[in-house]
Write a structure and sequence with these properties.
With 260 residues, the protein is of the alpha+beta class. 39% of the residues lie in helices and 19% in strands. The N terminus and C terminus are likely disordered.
Length: 260
């Protein structure tokens, strides 16, 4: 027996073409084999995915445990440093470093986190960066860590911490070299401190005029000096963009009557 079906070869359309039933049977066998191979491939792919997901889960859990241990050690280092006499001087130097106050203001403005420079500035676990801690001494971020010092305990700790950088170039330099592509944590949080202006409700302003600093204060309108000079907040280090004027220096109290 022969079967027929419509056929088109691209040049002309034939209403009917004849073929032997064995070719139809062979096609059915071929299609069945293709379906079997497809199902076998999908089954093996699902097995490989489950195994890979299981390995990733083990790695993530191990990383989380390692980061938690590193964080506990960092908290202990912060507590120990607070009782050292030399830590105070190092901390004061860190506070004055460029961009630190801006980073603290950035955390407050962007994340609602109140932070200050930690006592354990010299501890190698920060990879040369400046630890920013909350009121309980728990680290909340690290400012400007160095890629050259990122190893061991510092790697574990910083891999689980938000990292702040003063500019895009610093972040690019750190991101490119600090973590190798296979090792870099995918959940690493890195941010650039973009707060270059003062956002404090009660800024402590100074104005640099002719190379000298003068006290300034917020105002309803720009003063004469504001037309030529900028005011800066002494707390966050950011420029003050709202109206300001020079502040009147506090006068010494008058002496007792009749003195002179």
């Amino acid at each position: 027996m022969r079967s027929s079906y419509a056929y088109e070869d691209g040049l002309r359309s034939l209403p009917t073409v004849w073929t032997h039933p064995k070719y139809i049977a062979a096609e059915e066998i071929h299609l069945a084999e293709e379906e079997r191979r497809r199902l076998a491939y999908e089954t093996q792919a699902a097995i490989r995915k489950r195994r890979l997901d299981a390995r990733k889960t083990v790695v993530r859990e191990g990383n989380a445990a390692g980061r938690a241990r590193a964080l506990r050690k960092a908290v202990k280092a912060e507590e120990a440093a607070g009782s050292m006499s030399a830590a105070s001087a190092l901390r004061e130097m860190a506070v004055r470093r460029r961009g630190v106050r801006r980073a603290i203001a950035y955390l407050s403005r962007e994340h609602g986190v109140t932070a200050m420079v930690g006592w354990s500035v010299a501890d190698p676990c920060w990879a040369g960066g400046i630890p920013l801690v909350d009121g309980e001494g728990v680290p909340v971020a690290v400012f400007n860590p160095s890629r050259r010092l990122l190893r061991g305990q510092a790697y574990l700790l910083l891999a689980g911490m938000p990292l702040l950088f003063g500019d895009e170039l610093a972040l690019k330099h750190f991101s490119r070299y600090a973590y190798g592509a296979p090792k870099r944590p995918k959940d690493q949080r890195t941010e650039v401190v973009k707060l270059d202006f003062c956002a404090r409700e009660a800024p402590e302003l100074v104005a640099k005029i002719e190379g000298k600093q003068y006290p300034a204060q917020p105002s309803d309108s720009f003063g004469a000096a504001a037309a030529l000079y900028l005011a800066q907040c002494q707390v966050c280090g950011g420029a003050y963009k709202l109206p300001w004027r020079r502040a009147v220096p506090a006068r010494e109290p008058d002496g007792p009557a009749g003195s002179g």
